[in-house]
Amino acid sequence: MIPEVAISDREKAYALLEADADKILQLIKVQMDNLTMPQCPLYEEVLDTQMFGLSREIDFAVRLNLVSEQDGKSLLENLERELNVLHEAAQAAQKS
Fold it and tell me: pTM for this one?
């Protein structure tokens, strides 16, 4: 049986990772709305840096057994899907 504290720590770790993923999504939304378009090197630099940082956080949480490898991978894949939707919407708006 897993101690209740361990479950709570796992839930907290996943919630923190989700919050960081949401911050990345919000940052990219603001950047797309106000600053630059997806073709801009600055946009790509910010996105790459943020995604790399989140992937390192997830790796760390996985190594501590706070998050399963599958949950971490799923979190990254979900964020990538949401970012792709934003990117496609920005490109469609640019063509209009």
Answer: 0.82
